[in-house]
Amino acid sequence: MRCPKCPSPQCYTVEETCPNCGEQTEEHRTVSFVDAPGHETLMATMLSGAAIMDGAVLVIAANEDCPQPQTKEHLMALDIIGIKNIVIVQNKIDLVPRERIIENYQQIKKFVKGTVAENAPIIPISAQQNINIDVLIEALETEIPTPVHKIDRPASMLIARSFDVNKPGASIDEIQGGVIGGTLTEGVLRPGDELEIRPGIKVTTEGTTKWVPIMTTVSSIFAGSTKVEEATPGGLLAVGTYLDPTLTKGDSLTGQIAGKPGTLPDTRHQFVMELHLLDRVVGVTREEKINEIKTSEPLMLNIGTATTVGVVTSARKNEAQVALKRPVSAAIGSRVAISRRIDSRWRLIGVGVIKS
Fold it and tell me: What is the pLDDT of residue 79?
């Protein structure tokens, strides 16, 4: 929201009434957030969420030394996925003295030097005390602009969630179709549009297993709690369908792609990727050099919102072929975040680009 009378940054708020002058504020922009977990064991979740974002807010606590291991890993992940619009938030400034805030600020500056976030603004705030929230909103407005999306192309949606909205014991007349959640990357989506979902569902016939795309129709679209008649790229959507809700319950379609039938990328059970490995492992307390990828090694791979495990069937210095435990729908040129099992945790080690 934005106050028409107050100067910047005081004009920015999330309230319908300006806290400074009492003027009625005007709706200026709608922003969707995905809370990426900081815990190291949830790195795959963070990578999947980051794939659908236009920018990132890196939250660093002023009462902790910077960087924490997971902060290093998250910043490297943003670089690998290609997110360059970043705002750094120095939170909890109400818990420490001024000298500690300045010391922590200098730690942050040193940490981001030479990274994708080197020129990102650092906004000191207190979420609890509502300090500098207007400055933070102004930074989001200036540093993470709404990108120009390609709405003249066929609709394509990355699925980040899927669920069954029906309550236990609902009658047949009350049952609603399954819902998919995510974001449009291009095109326009409307109720009544036909959708294809890839890779789809696994079907076994006479001992032969294959993945079959799912076909359905859009029944409704919600942006937050608001029902809309048309959706364009940007922001998070919940798309109602006529699918059997057993197909969508429990995030079972997470990582798949939905779009206009016949326009989605191929389903890949294996692919060759060009490798760009990091020099050292991030997210661990000790420094550790990253060794070359080897044949028969299992890797965790994140492509878009999909997370799968791939076993390396062939490896050369700058290239690897992987066979996937679960197929993905991905185009040539797609970026792949690569993680390796280190000390019983999946650790980010580099990025790949699908070649074939």
Answer: 82
Percent helix / strand / coil, the chain, rounded to 5: 15, 40, 45
First CA to last CA distance, the chain: 46
Specify the pTM: 0.81
Task: Pull the structure tokens for residue 299.
Answer: 């890797």
Query: pLDDT tens across 108-130, in order?
Result: 999 999 999 999 999 999 999 99
Residue type, 225: S
Domains detected in the chain: 55-143 (3.40.50.300), 156-259 (2.40.30.10), 267-354 (2.40.30.10)
Closest by CA position to 72, among listed 56, 60, 87: 60
- Per-residue buried b or exposed e for 61-91, using 16+ beta carbons within 10 Å of the residue's own CB: bbeeebbbebbbbbbbbbbbbebebbbbbbb
240 vs 194: CA distance, rounded Å: 12
Q: Per DSSP, which regions of the chain are E strands?
A: 56-61, 86-91, 122-124, 156-163, 179-186, 194-205, 208-223, 226-228, 237-241, 257-259, 267-277, 298-303, 306-316, 319-329, 335-342, 345-354
Tell the residue number behind the tokens 């076994």, with chain if given. 204
pLDDT digits (tens, 9 = 90+) for 330-351: 999 998 989 999 888 888 888 8
Q: How far apart are CA 225 and CA 237, in angstroms?
A: 10
Structure tokens at 188: 């326009």
